[in-house]
Design brief:
Oligomer: single chain
Distance between the termini: 24 Å
Radius of gyration: 18 Å
Order of helices and strands: HHEHEEHHHHHE
Strand content: 5-15%
Length: 184
Protein backbone atom coordinates (compact mmCIF):
# COMPACT_ATOMS: atom_id res chain seq x y z
CA UNK A 1 0.00 0.00 0.00
CA UNK A 2 1.59 3.25 -1.23
CA UNK A 3 0.06 5.37 1.57
CA UNK A 4 1.50 3.12 4.24
CA UNK A 5 4.94 3.17 2.56
CA UNK A 6 4.91 6.97 2.60
CA UNK A 7 3.93 7.18 6.28
CA UNK A 8 6.43 8.80 8.59
CA UNK A 9 8.37 6.43 10.80
CA UNK A 10 7.41 6.66 14.48
CA UNK A 11 10.01 8.49 16.59
CA UNK A 12 10.26 5.56 18.97
CA UNK A 13 11.48 3.44 16.07
CA UNK A 14 14.53 5.61 15.34
CA UNK A 15 15.21 7.71 18.45
CA UNK A 16 16.94 5.57 21.06
CA UNK A 17 18.13 7.26 24.27
CA UNK A 18 20.60 4.38 24.75
CA UNK A 19 22.72 5.39 21.75
CA UNK A 20 24.53 8.55 20.70
CA UNK A 21 22.36 10.28 18.12
CA UNK A 22 22.22 13.60 16.36
CA UNK A 23 18.68 14.80 15.64
CA UNK A 24 17.33 17.82 13.79
CA UNK A 25 14.04 18.68 15.54
CA UNK A 26 11.38 21.12 14.39
CA UNK A 27 8.58 22.44 16.60
CA UNK A 28 5.84 24.52 14.94
CA UNK A 29 3.27 26.88 16.44
CA UNK A 30 -0.42 26.17 15.99
CA UNK A 31 -2.83 28.46 14.10
CA UNK A 32 0.00 30.58 12.71
CA UNK A 33 0.62 31.87 16.24
CA UNK A 34 3.72 33.98 16.64
CA UNK A 35 6.69 32.53 18.43
CA UNK A 36 9.12 35.41 17.87
CA UNK A 37 9.34 38.63 15.93
CA UNK A 38 6.90 41.38 15.00
CA UNK A 39 3.38 40.40 13.94
CA UNK A 40 2.65 42.96 11.23
CA UNK A 41 -1.09 42.19 11.36
CA UNK A 42 -1.50 43.05 15.05
CA UNK A 43 1.61 45.11 15.74
CA UNK A 44 2.48 42.81 18.66
CA UNK A 45 6.20 42.27 19.23
CA UNK A 46 7.18 38.79 20.39
CA UNK A 47 10.93 39.19 20.06
CA UNK A 48 11.43 38.81 23.84
CA UNK A 49 10.51 35.13 23.50
CA UNK A 50 13.79 34.45 21.71
CA UNK A 51 15.56 34.95 25.04
CA UNK A 52 13.11 32.60 26.78
CA UNK A 53 14.06 29.89 24.32
CA UNK A 54 17.78 30.53 24.66
CA UNK A 55 17.51 30.45 28.46
CA UNK A 56 15.47 27.24 28.35
CA UNK A 57 17.99 25.53 26.07
CA UNK A 58 20.86 26.58 28.35
CA UNK A 59 19.00 25.26 31.39
CA UNK A 60 18.15 21.95 29.72
CA UNK A 61 21.77 21.54 28.55
CA UNK A 62 22.83 21.91 32.21
CA UNK A 63 20.45 19.13 33.28
CA UNK A 64 20.27 16.60 30.43
CA UNK A 65 23.04 14.50 28.95
CA UNK A 66 22.25 16.15 25.62
CA UNK A 67 24.21 18.78 23.71
CA UNK A 68 22.43 21.60 21.89
CA UNK A 69 24.61 21.88 18.79
CA UNK A 70 22.73 24.71 17.11
CA UNK A 71 19.27 26.21 16.86
CA UNK A 72 17.25 28.78 14.96
CA UNK A 73 14.09 30.52 16.12
CA UNK A 74 11.79 31.77 13.38
CA UNK A 75 8.50 33.66 13.58
CA UNK A 76 6.31 30.57 13.99
CA UNK A 77 8.64 27.62 14.57
CA UNK A 78 12.05 26.60 15.81
CA UNK A 79 14.77 24.27 14.60
CA UNK A 80 17.25 22.63 16.95
CA UNK A 81 20.03 20.13 16.42
CA UNK A 82 20.65 17.94 19.47
CA UNK A 83 23.17 15.21 20.25
CA UNK A 84 22.35 12.65 22.94
CA UNK A 85 25.15 11.52 25.28
CA UNK A 86 23.95 8.37 27.07
CA UNK A 87 27.48 7.41 28.20
CA UNK A 88 27.75 10.74 30.04
CA UNK A 89 24.46 10.09 31.85
CA UNK A 90 25.51 6.53 32.73
CA UNK A 91 28.69 7.93 34.33
CA UNK A 92 26.73 10.21 36.67
CA UNK A 93 26.28 8.99 40.23
CA UNK A 94 22.79 8.05 41.35
CA UNK A 95 22.74 11.15 43.55
CA UNK A 96 23.69 13.36 40.56
CA UNK A 97 20.88 11.88 38.45
CA UNK A 98 18.38 12.51 41.26
CA UNK A 99 19.58 16.11 41.75
CA UNK A 100 19.33 16.87 38.04
CA UNK A 101 15.82 15.41 37.86
CA UNK A 102 14.75 17.45 40.88
CA UNK A 103 16.12 20.60 39.20
CA UNK A 104 14.03 19.78 36.13
CA UNK A 105 10.86 18.99 38.11
CA UNK A 106 11.26 20.79 41.46
CA UNK A 107 8.73 20.30 44.22
CA UNK A 108 9.30 23.87 45.44
CA UNK A 109 10.50 27.14 43.92
CA UNK A 110 11.72 30.41 45.41
CA UNK A 111 10.07 33.80 44.87
CA UNK A 112 12.02 34.26 41.61
CA UNK A 113 10.71 30.93 40.31
CA UNK A 114 14.04 29.13 40.68
CA UNK A 115 14.12 25.53 41.96
CA UNK A 116 14.79 25.19 45.69
CA UNK A 117 17.45 22.65 46.68
CA UNK A 118 15.64 19.30 47.04
CA UNK A 119 15.33 17.69 50.42
CA UNK A 120 16.81 14.25 51.05
CA UNK A 121 13.25 12.87 51.08
CA UNK A 122 12.66 14.30 47.58
CA UNK A 123 15.95 12.83 46.34
CA UNK A 124 15.05 9.49 47.90
CA UNK A 125 11.85 9.41 45.83
CA UNK A 126 14.03 9.39 42.69
CA UNK A 127 16.70 7.08 44.14
CA UNK A 128 14.34 4.08 44.09
CA UNK A 129 16.05 1.64 41.64
CA UNK A 130 13.16 1.39 39.12
CA UNK A 131 12.55 5.16 39.14
CA UNK A 132 16.27 5.90 38.93
CA UNK A 133 16.71 3.69 35.84
CA UNK A 134 13.75 5.43 34.16
CA UNK A 135 15.03 8.93 35.04
CA UNK A 136 18.59 8.10 33.89
CA UNK A 137 17.19 7.01 30.51
CA UNK A 138 15.04 10.13 30.21
CA UNK A 139 18.05 12.40 30.85
CA UNK A 140 19.56 11.19 27.55
CA UNK A 141 16.27 11.12 25.64
CA UNK A 142 15.82 13.79 22.95
CA UNK A 143 12.03 13.38 23.10
CA UNK A 144 12.12 14.31 26.80
CA UNK A 145 14.29 17.37 26.04
CA UNK A 146 11.74 18.52 23.45
CA UNK A 147 8.87 17.81 25.82
CA UNK A 148 10.51 19.96 28.50
CA UNK A 149 11.08 22.72 25.95
CA UNK A 150 7.60 22.69 24.44
CA UNK A 151 5.65 22.67 27.69
CA UNK A 152 7.68 25.49 29.26
CA UNK A 153 7.52 27.79 26.23
CA UNK A 154 3.81 27.05 25.62
CA UNK A 155 2.89 27.95 29.21
CA UNK A 156 4.87 31.19 29.05
CA UNK A 157 3.55 32.15 25.61
CA UNK A 158 -0.06 31.46 26.62
CA UNK A 159 0.41 33.60 29.74
CA UNK A 160 2.04 36.31 27.60
CA UNK A 161 -0.86 36.14 25.10
CA UNK A 162 -3.46 36.00 27.91
CA UNK A 163 -4.92 32.84 26.41
CA UNK A 164 -5.17 29.12 27.02
CA UNK A 165 -4.99 26.03 24.86
CA UNK A 166 -2.51 24.56 22.48
CA UNK A 167 0.47 26.64 21.43
CA UNK A 168 2.38 23.98 19.47
CA UNK A 169 1.18 22.09 16.43
CA UNK A 170 1.42 18.62 17.94
CA UNK A 171 4.68 16.98 18.89
CA UNK A 172 8.01 17.88 17.35
CA UNK A 173 9.24 16.44 14.08
CA UNK A 174 12.63 14.79 14.37
CA UNK A 175 15.04 13.68 11.67
CA UNK A 176 18.36 11.92 12.11
CA UNK A 177 20.87 13.14 9.50
CA UNK A 178 21.99 9.55 8.89
CA UNK A 179 18.39 8.65 7.96
CA UNK A 180 18.04 11.37 5.31
CA UNK A 181 17.72 10.16 1.73
CA UNK A 182 20.94 10.51 -0.21
CA UNK A 183 20.96 13.13 -3.01
CA UNK A 184 20.06 11.81 -6.44
Amino acid sequence: DKERAMARQARGEYLDPNEIQVVHAVQRCVRQAFLCGLDKNTGNDYEHRRQWIRDRFEFLASVFGIDCLTYTVLSNHLHIVLRSRPAVVKAWSDEEVARRWCRLFPKKRDDAGQPIEPTQAELNMVLVPEKLAQVRLRLSDISWWMRCTAENIARRANKDDKTTGRFWQGRFQGQRPDSLPSPA
